């Protein structure tokens, strides 16, 4: 639909997991704002509010970095064994060759699930997260000030360091939330009619699920289709066994990181269903940034972008060999632009597998709509109807036999419905 899709688990973690201010709301009927007599502002509301939020984000970052420096000094003198566990502040920047951390998938929950709800993100929600974290940081600052430097302060410093790590993990989530808002509020502003249509579908799906009715056949058909690129190959290795092979090219030269990405995606896309099995093999080749930009002969004077450079993602992706899926870096928020473009924000194997689903032509099976909040910008609304489907929820969902059935049908390898 938009060609840019963000990282789902971030949104779900932020919307559902945090205690205060999580706004689970049903979308209001889109009556719009009353027309105003004052001239339209030169700048859209969402960017004005976004900059307010960024100011607060900067305050948090600066105070957090000062605390890191102070704590590092204390640990070096009085608890050097703890120093190694004090992680550096997140880079707070995005750019070429800035890699995310690949963090484990969330544990699978057992027991009854809460019914699907519409979850909302907005600048106001980002501000709530920031204010809460600034309060938590004040407590940490006070605790550090109260330390009386001496050998006996070791345990106190160790406890403060543990709290500091928790603060860092909150900061990472907040940074991701803010980038998510920038990405999607801009998308909404640029494509109102498309988002109006999805918002209507979202509301329809919400009502059907709340009445325990199945989703409409047209909606199910729309979210179940796939369109595997021609270079994706399928081979039947035994009567009930299929192997899907995908050529991948990447300019990430950290082999360990690439191996983690490959195995994370493959693991999710290996599906066993009774005696049927479906497997994915990624055939990864690495193109160094130098070769990507200067060619093999390196004749003309040229250079690859510097680490951290903000690059034109589309032009960058176009440099890769044709007929491969591209995995590269340089986005502020995980995106699909000519391939999978990683951001500095933590990512799970489930999210990478979800994005791979898009590269095989599956649309999102969750709905992202919006509400116009006037001077507050937009609220982005998300509704996840089926938490077992990886294209609906990359945190709890899995790749299902029906995903492979859809791919094989699209190729005419198994009969259509
Ligand atoms: Zn998606």
Helices and strands, with pairings:
Blueprint: H1 8-17, E1 23-24, H2 45-78, H3 80-83, E2 118-121, H4 123-145, H5 154-190, H6 192-210, H7 217-224, E3 233-238, E4 241-250, H8 255-269, E5 271-273, E6 276-286, H9 289-294, H10 313-317, E7 325-329, E8 335-336, E9 340-342, H11 349-359, E10 367-372, E11 378-383, H12 401-410
Helix pairs in contact: 2-4, 2-5, 4-5, 8-11
The structure holds zinc ion (ZN).
Can you tell me about this structure?
There is one protein chain. The chain is of the alpha/beta class. It is built from 12 helices and 11 strands. The chain has 2 domains: 8-210, no CATH class; 226-365 and 387-410, Collagenase (Catalytic Domain). α2 runs parallel beside α4, α2 (45-78) runs antiparallel to α5 (154-190) and α4 runs antiparallel to α5 (154-190). The protein is globular. The two termini are 25 Å apart.
Summarize the structure.
This protein has 417 residues and is α/β, with parallel strands linked by helices. 44% of the residues lie in helices and 14% in strands.
Question: For the CA atoms, what is the radius of gyration?
Answer: 23 Å
Q: What's the quaternary structure here?
A: single chain
Helical fraction? 40-55%
Which ligands accompany this protein?
zinc ion
Q: Could you give the distance between the termini?
A: 25 Å
The unreliable regions are: 1-34
Quote the average pLDDT: 87
Q: Can you write the helix and strand succession as a string?
A: HEHHEHHHHEEHEEHHEEEHEEH
Main beta-sheet strand count, sense and barrel state: 7 strands, mixed
Question: What portion of the residues fall into strands of 2 or more residues?
Answer: 5-15%
How many strands appear in the DSSP assignment?
A: 11
**What is the number of helical segments per DSSP (H or I, 4+ residues)?**
12
Tell me the count of domains: 2
User: Structural class, judged by helices and strands?
Assistant: alpha/beta
Tell me, briefly, the overall form. globular
């Amino acid at each position: 639909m938009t060609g840019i899709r963000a990282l789902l688990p971030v949104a779900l973690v932020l919307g559902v997991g945090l205690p205060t201010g999580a706004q689970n709301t049903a979308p209001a009927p889109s009556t719009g704002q009353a027309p105003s007599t004052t001239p339209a502002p030169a700048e859209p509301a969402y960017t004005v509010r976004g900059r307010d939020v960024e100011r607060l984000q900067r305050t948090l970052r600066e105070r957090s970095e000062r605390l890191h420096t102070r704590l590092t000094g204390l640990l070096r003198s009085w608890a050097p064994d703890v120093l190694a566990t004090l992680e550096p502040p997140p880079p707070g920047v995005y750019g070429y060759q800035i890699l995310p951390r690949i963090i484990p998938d969330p544990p699978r929950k057992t027991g009854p699930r809460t019914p699907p709800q519409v979850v909302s993100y907005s600048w106001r929600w980002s501000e709530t997260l920031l204010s809460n974290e600034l309060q938590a940081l004040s407590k940490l600052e006070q605790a550090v000030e109260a330390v009386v430097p001496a050998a006996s302060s070791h345990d106190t410093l160790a406890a403060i360091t543990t709290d500091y790590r928790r603060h860092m993990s909150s900061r990472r989530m907040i940074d991701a939330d803010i980038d998510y808002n920038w990405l999607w509020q801009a998308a909404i502003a640029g494509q109102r009619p498309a988002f109006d249509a999805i918002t209507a579908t979202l509301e329809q799906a919400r009502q059907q699920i709340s009445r325990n009715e199945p989703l409409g056949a047209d909606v199910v058909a729309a979210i179940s289709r796939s369109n595997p690129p021609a270079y994706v190959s399928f081979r039947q290795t035994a009567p009930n066994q299929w192997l899907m092979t995908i050529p991948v090219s990447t300019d990430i030269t950290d082999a360990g990181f690439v191996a983690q990405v490959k195995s994370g995606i493959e693991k999710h896309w290996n599906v066993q269903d009774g005696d049927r099995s479906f497997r994915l093999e990624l055939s990864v080749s690495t193109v160094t940034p130098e070769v990507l930009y200067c060619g093999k002969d390196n004749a003309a004077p040229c250079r690859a972008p510097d680490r951290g450079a903000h690059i034109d993602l589309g032009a960058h992706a176009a440099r890769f060999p044709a007929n491969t899926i591209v995995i590269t870096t340089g986005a502020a928020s995980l995106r699909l632009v000519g391939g999978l473009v990683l951001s500095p924000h933590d990512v799970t194997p489930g999210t990478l597998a979800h994005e791979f689903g898009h590269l095989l032509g599956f649309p999102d099976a969750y709905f992202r709509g919006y509400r116009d909040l006037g001077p507050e910008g937009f609220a982005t609304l998300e509704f996840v109807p089926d938490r077992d489907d990886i294209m609906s929820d990359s945190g709890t969902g899995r790749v299902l036999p029906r995903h492979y059935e859809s791919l094989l049908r699209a190729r005419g390898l198994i009969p259509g419905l």
